[in-house]
Amino acid sequence: DVKVTQSSRYLVKRTGEKVFLECVQDMDHENMFWYRQDPGLGLRLIYFSYDVKMKEKGDIPEGYSVSREKKERFSLILESASTNQTSMYLCASSFIEPGGEQYFGPGTRLTVT
Amino acid sequence: SQQGEEDPQALSIQEGENATMNCSYKTSINNLQWYRQNSGRGLVHLILIRSNEREKHSGRLRVTLDTSKKSSSLLITASRAADTASYFCATDWRGTYKYIFGTGTRLKVLA
Predict the structure, then answer these.
(1) By CB distance 3.0 to 4.6 Å, which of A30, A34, A80, B88 could disulfide with A46?
(2) Domain boundaries, given as residue ranges, for chain B
(3) CA B41/CA A109 separation, integer angstroms
(4) What domains are there in chain A, each with its CATH number?
(5) Can you name the CATH fold of B5-110?
(6) Which residue of B has its CA nearest to A59?
(7) Which residues of A touch B96 (CB under 8 A)?
(8) Closest-CA residue in chain A for B33?
């Protein structure tokens, strides 16, 4: 079975802190994605990566950066956390084919106080 | 971005009844997918239908796709309490790696 893991299920951080969210997949997927999910807004794409060291901005990249140094690992970085970044963060991965099935991690619920 | 929309936003039915939810999208697609999300968890892939397909079945799930109307429906037959979840449709974005998710239908199945 494909497994996508995220480093934390729940995280509480203070405003201004630098926050790292880690995602690891074990299926040798080329594509990896970071979404945030907010009530009434559905899933919104923050960043995605289609290869090691390659990244592209999604719909809401402001305030975020990403790192993909190894194929299996995709990190989301909140440079200076703000309260409006309180949300559920979901990582996903897929094979190279555009529009193919995505496999999601369990999510990280981040609260910024 | 071009968000998809699910309809209805929420649905409550009795166990054993069928549940139908709809998805509309705005651009041409290569395929459309349906996902389920249990409360507070990640999404689980249910079914993928390609743009040249009109109907697809998987167990108690039946998906239809009408590309002329840019819409899809998901039918869950003989629903169970365990089907209680949010359901999302997702489409590819103009053949790129990007996915566009709808805002979801919250289904509640009463035992």
Answers:
(1) A34
(2) 5-110
(3) 10
(4) 4-96 (2.60.40.10)
(5) Immunoglobulin-like (2.60.40)
(6) B1
(7) 98
(8) A101
The answer to whether B52 faces chain A, any CB pair under 8 Å, is no
Q: Per residue in A81-109, pLDDT tens?
A: 999 999 999 999 998 887 789 999 999 99
Predicted confidence (pLDDT) at residue B14 exceeds the cutoff of 80: yes
Chain segment A1-43, per-residue pLDDT in tens: 669 999 999 999 999 999 999 999 999 999 999 999 998 888 9
DSSP-assigned beta bridge partners for residue B23: B6, B72
Distance from CA of B23 to the nearest CA of A (A): 13
- The answer to whether the peptide bond before residue A106 is cis (omega within 30 degrees of 0) is no
- CB-based contact A104 B88, cutoff 8 Å: no
Cβ of B48 within 8 Å of Cβ of A50? The answer is: no
Residue of chain B nearest A88, judged by CA positions: B40
Peptide bond into A39 cis (omega under 30): no
CA–CA separation, B84 vs B38, rounded Å?
7
Of A21-25, A56-60, B39-43, B83-87, least confident by mean pLDDT is B39-43
Residues in chain B within 8 Å Cβ distance of A42: 3, 88, 101-104
Average pLDDT over residues B72-90: 96
Using the beta-carbon criterion (under 8 Å), do A45 and B98 form an inter-chain contact?
Answer: yes
Per the CB < 8 A criterion, the answer to whether A107 and A8 are in contact is no
